[in-house]
Amino acid sequence: MSEVVVDHAEGAVVPVHALLESETAAFLEGRAAFVKGFAALSEFKGKAGQLLVVPDTAGGMDRVLYGLGERAQAQGFRALAAKLPPGDYRIASAPAAIAPDQIALAFALGSYRFDRYKKKGESRPRLVFEGVDLSEARQIAHACALARDMVNTPASDMGPLQIETIAREIAEQYGATITVTTGEGLLEANYPAVHAVGRAAVPERAPRMIEIQWGQAGKPLVALVGKGVVFDTGGLDIKPSAGMRNMKKDMGGAAHALALGRMVMAANLPVRLAILVPVVENAISGDAMRPGDVLASRKGLTIEVGNTDAEGRLILADALTRAGELEPALTFDLATLTGAARMALGPQLPPYYTDDEELAGQIETAMKEVDDPMWRMPLWKGYVDSIDSDVADVKNDSDAWAQAGSVTAALFLQKFAPAGPWAHFDIFAWNPRGRPGWPSGGEVQSIRALYRMIAGRFA
Ligand code: BES
Ligand code: MN
Ligand code: ZN
Fold first, then answer.
1. In the chain, what percentage of residues exceed pLDDT 70?
2. Nearest ligand 1 atom, CA 239
3. Which of 82, 88, 158, 320 is the most buried (most CB within 10 A)?
4. pLDDT digit string, tens, across residues 155-209
5. Cα distances (angstroms) measured from residue 357 to each of 126, 268, 353, 363, 406
6. Quick check: is 448 catalytic?
7. CA-CA distance, 69 to 16, in Å (whole number)?
8. Residue 40 contacts by C-beta under 8 Å, 6 or more apart in sequence?
9. What is the pLDDT of residues 66-82, one digit of tens each?
10. What does residue 174 show for φ and ψ, rounded to 5 degrees?
């Protein structure tokens, strides 16, 4: 990715004034008559995303006025990246509440594009920050772009091996150790549920368990678990076409866990990390798991497969059990786990679950600080017997009476989660509608906040 936030530029750099609606009139009052008049003529009011290029007398760009709307929030700069013509710019003024490196990060996130299969990339606007340390913002932006690329890449080019390769690259870059257990090896290593879900795939796309470990002994361990379903057909309980259409994104949790881990390692936060990513294709073949099958799990609990399309929680069960064996001080899992989460809160607001009040408080604080919204939902114990099975210890699809599909999925995971602080994130990882700064397709959710939260908790 070519850098869109830089610390110096050779040629002309156009000033950008980022203005709240409430301060726009006063700002214009203090400008030259031409600027003031041109803004009035163009009805520039500082509304969110409003952009006005003020020309000079030679027909070039004198300056740019950019509206932030009512609230001083860094994410307001995402649309700036999408709306500016190519060229070099600097922020001449912006609300004091937004730090320059937050602006840089939002701008970088907003300029993301997925152009792997397009003929040529167009040139993009760049934002120049002199005297600002951009290294952290750049690392976060890179990690987010990687996760979005992984989500956007079709399953044909983002299979289990490709995810393994990316994990190996990340591990190597930061001196982490990586272990990958593949195919029949999963049975020997006691990952029976991961094997059962992934065994229907062709041998080249065999299931695997990826484990990355990083950091110095003695530091507190943070475990990051991510659902890596490279494509979710639904299995024998096959999805209808509309439901299957975007299931290349079902490895979004794995992409998010790897990206968050990369942020933590790049910043050298004072923790140890375990990144645990079960990767499978939920495919259909004569060897596919069937409705009614009873699976073994790493934890020893037997799981009845009520529905082969509830596959994410099966592979996460083994991965969460593995996390617990490492005795983490904190565990997060991220997964495109349920359609019910989207029915509850829509694509922009991922639900998260934890019974740990202190942890919830820290997540709330961090998500506000970095403008990465989530919504806490309850691990409502009244629904836990909806996943009781007649024949096994638990089943993977809840009884219809409980209705709350995202909640019952979280309750299933809780049975396998490590003791101690744990939170589960039922992410969507996708923008169904494109808008400036938020292109349609792969999106990163929750992990900017979680990075901030980890940095604060273990500072
Ligand atoms: N990957 C899907 C969930 C999903 C669907 C996420 C659409 C985002 C958008 C998951 O594996 C799944 O199929 N869940 C089922 C569970 C049900 C069969 C109990 C669901 O949510 O319908
Ligand atoms: Mn499914
Ligand atoms: Zn799935």
1. 100
2. 13
3. 320
4. 999 999 999 999 999 999 999 999 999 999 999 999 999 999 999 999 999 999 9
5. 42, 27, 11, 10, 20
6. no
7. 15
8. 28
9. 999 999 999 999 999 99
10. -110, 15
Distance CA 227, CA 225 (A): 7
What Rg value do the Cα atoms of the chain yield, rounded?
A: 24
Q: What is the mean pLDDT of residues 385-391?
A: 98
> What element of type H or E holds 259?
helix 252-266
* Nearest atom of ligand 1 to the alpha carbon of 250: 1
Tell me the average pLDDT across 229-244: 98
> Would you say the CB of residue 314 lies under 6 angstroms from ligand 1?
no
Q: At residue 121, does pLDDT exceed 80?
A: no
Tokens of residue 146, six digits: 């990687």
Amino acid type, 368: K
In this prediction, residue 2 carries a pLDDT of 72
Does the pLDDT of residue 1 top 60, yes or no?
Answer: no
- Tokens of residue 142, six digits: 């890179």
Please state, in angstroms and rounded to a whole number, the distance separating the CA atoms of residues 27 and 17: 9
The Cα 434–Cα 440 span in angstroms is 4
Q: In 153-293, where does DSSP find H-type helix?
A: 160-173, 185-188, 192-198, 241-244, 252-266
**Which ligand is the nearest neighbour of the Cα of 341?**
1
In total, the chain counts a number of residues equal to 459
Helices in 99-218 by DSSP H: which ranges?
100-110, 135-152, 160-173, 185-188, 192-198
Find out whether 410 and 424 touch, Cβ atoms under 8 Å: yes
- Tokens (6 digits) for 384: 């836990």
* Ligand 1 atom index nearest CA of 282: 11
Question: Does residue 250 line the site of ligand 1, with CB under 6 A?
Answer: yes
Contact 307 CB / ligand 1 (< 6 Å): yes
Residues 259, 447 contacting (CB under 8 angstroms): yes
Residue to mutate, 237, 284, 303, 309, ligand 1, most ligand atoms under 8 Å from C-beta: 309
Catalytic status, residue 138:
no
Instruction: From residue 9, give the alpha-carbon distance in Å to each of 14, 85, 91, 168.
Output: 11, 16, 14, 35
Phi, psi of 400 (to 5 degrees): -60, -30
User: From the CB of 339, is ligand 1 less than 6 Å away?
Assistant: yes
Distance 244 CA to ligand 1 centre (A): 10
pLDDT at 246: 98
Higher pLDDT, 307 or 121: 307
Neighbours of 2 (CB within 10 A): 9
